[in-house]
Amino acid sequence: MKLPRIVITGVGLTAPNGNSLAEFRANLLGGVAGIEWLDVRYMGRLLAGVCHFDALKHQKKKEVRVGTRAGSISIWCAREALADSGIAFDAFPKDRVGIYVGCTEHGNVETENEIFAISKFAYDTKYWSHYHNPRTVANNPAGEASLNLGVTGPAYTIGAACAAGNLGLIHASQMLRLGEVDLAICGGISESIHTFGIFAGFKSQGALATHETPSKASRPFDKARNGIVVSEGGCLYTLERLEDAQKRGAKIYAEIAGYGVNSDASDYVLPNPVRQAECVRKALANAGMDASDIHIVNTHATATPLGDIQECEAIRAVFGEGCPDTHINNTKSFIGHCMGAAGALELAGNLPSFDDLVVHPTINVDELDPLCALPGLVLNTPVKAGKVDAILNNSFGMLGINSTLIVKRFVS
Q1: Where are the beta strands (DSSP E) in 33-173?
Q2: 196 and 113 share a domain?
Q3: How many domains does the chain have?
Q4: Is the pLDDT of residue 344 over 90?
Q5: What confidence tens digit (pLDDT) does each residue in 28-67 have?
Q6: Segments forming the whole domain that contains residue 326
Q7: Distance CA 71, CA 60 (A)
Q8: What's the confidence (pLDDT) of residue 272?
Q9: Beta strands of 41-116 (E only): which ranges?
Q10: Same domain assignment for residues 131 and 214
């Protein structure tokens, strides 16, 4: 049976260095990072990727007050993606719309805030917010978007650690092919910088980045890299079946070509390069492609000393020395690690390459770690590619969840 072709028709995002695809892309090509100092409860000033979007563009003040930061990011990205898609959403059957939002974790922010608030009242729980439960349920980011948009179709989150952004698109593609929905709003979001727990956790692991200059703190592949910059952000897409998109004359960014998802089953935190390579190969097989067909590989690399090396081992195992047209880059060097939003944002930053054939670089690589050296690695300045017909996006997460998504140039 021939499966329906699935295409990307809209992009909405907020990143530490941009609130639209155009702004985000310009800063990726211009070497503009979005890392700054943030005051974190109990921990003081730490480096973080902070988004600066106007939540009140799409929400009322009460909605922002009652809801969550994750919800506001989801609503912003969903509304911006719909506007970008040009779809007549007001007239679209809302029961035929699905919202699939990847998320690393949710609820920690609100729980920490409530405990801090009642600590001022001798921990008397009568001061606990009655909004706490809807704020902390796992489906909150998608649920707030469904309330804002009036979507009555399926709306839920996908918990897949830092592989979740890719999983949002993968799951949406599957639901469209199954005929469960006719329009999917999908991708990933993160509010992680608002919980001190994630900073404390990475610090206790010795995996939290430090640097005197914020813009230089996130430095995957660099010999002096020393950890993760925690960031917030979001990117949601509109996905449609090709025939529906063509029927309404939609612009098409790319076509979903294939994907792979697997698990390491080997460690709580440490990645497994053998399983990562298997995930990439699984995606290539699903897309009916060879490694040499890929022109951009966006790496997951988070700037941890061991994690970057292991991913490079996985990439080397698949792409080797025989893919002269393959360029390899990294987006976290600009924006830090946006957790559940990472994969979705990193894909977005590369989509314009289908049009301009320019590959954005990995920045902050002053001295390349020899163990991270790869053929085609784009460092510090953009490069012009001979062709860009396929982009492979890697996202890996804790507890060994791996996801690889491939998109290709749309050809009718």
Answers
A1: 35-40, 44-49, 97-103, 155-159
A2: yes
A3: 2
A4: yes
A5: 999 999 999 999 999 999 999 999 999 999 999 999 999 9
A6: 259-406
A7: 13
A8: 96
A9: 44-49, 97-103
A10: yes
pLDDT at 321: 83
Angstrom distance (rounded) from CA 165 to CA 160: 8
Query: In the chain, helix, strand, coil percent, each to 5?
Result: 40, 25, 35
Per the CB < 8 A criterion, the answer to whether 207 and 52 are in contact is: no
Pairing mode, if any, of strands 6-14 and 97-103? unpaired
Collapse the DSSP code of 255 into the 3-class scheme (helix H, G, I; strand E, B; otherwise coil) and give the result: strand
Which pTM value belongs to this model?
Answer: 0.97
Locate 301 and state its tokens.
């690399």
Contact 80, 54 (CB under 8 A): no
Q: Above 90 in pLDDT, residue 161?
A: yes
CA distance 234 to 354: 22
Cβ atoms of 19 and 52 within 8 Å: the answer is yes
Q: Are 66 and 129 in contact (CB under 8 A)?
A: no
Q: Are residues 237 and 91 in the same domain?
A: yes
- End-to-end CA, the chain: 20
pLDDT for 322 equals 83
The 10s digit of each residue's pLDDT in 373-410 is 999 999 999 999 999 999 999 999 999 999 999 999 99
Contacts with 278 (C-beta within 8 Å, 6 or more apart), sequence order: 260, 262
Q: Which residues, 6 or more positions from 201, have their beta carbon under 8 angstroms from its beta carbon?
A: none
Mean pLDDT (whole number) for 180-185? 98
